[in-house]
Amino acid sequence: xxxxxSVTGDTRERIHEAGLALFHERGYTGTTVxxxxxxxxxxxxxxxxxxxxxxxxxFAIVDRVHDRADAVLAGALRSAGAGPEAQLEALASAFTxxxxxxxxxxxxxxxxxxxxxxAQRESVVRRRRRVRALFADVLRQGEREGRFSFAVLxxxxxxxxxxxxxxxxxxxxxxxxxxxxxxTAQDTAALHGRLALRIARG
Length: 202
Known about the structure:
There is one protein chain. The protein is an all-alpha fold. The protein is 73% helix and 0% strand. The chain is built from nine helices and no strands. The chain has helices spanning 11-26, 33-40, 44-48, 54-80, 84-101, 103-112, 118-144, 158-176, 185-201. Helix 1 (11-26) crosses helix 6 and helix 4 crosses helix 6. Mean pLDDT is 91; it is low at 4-8.
């Protein structure tokens, strides 16, 4: 049985860590409030003093992942400078590295947010759309400057399709990346940055 009683910090953080570990291992729907409480050395009633429901705990986990992703992407964009090629490569590399570094948290966030109540789920969907729009804006700027080309894709929503392809490439790396394998996390992130450029250049 998972036990996070030794995790430093306050009780709310212990619950957060237990929820993340259990949701990753068993899925949100496969985890009970009783199991969450036992993992933290609490009663179910005590757990509710910190999170009103299992839904609220999942939302807190997913929201934190998106907060951190937003900060990483904003930092990558600032450091990349003004050119769309440098910006796209930096964004794709940073997003890939983010998922490699946090496989449990990103899997839960990408997989289990669909179980949130409608208002919370829509909040997450809006955040995910903003990330896609960030990539799409860079792609459109590159197309305007003649750096990127999407004509080969042959559709009006080619930029949206390219954005999703790049994002999915970064997201799914956490499912296969092996830290003990021949390629480092840094090399893998850099490779995905270059692959994003290949997609954008048509």
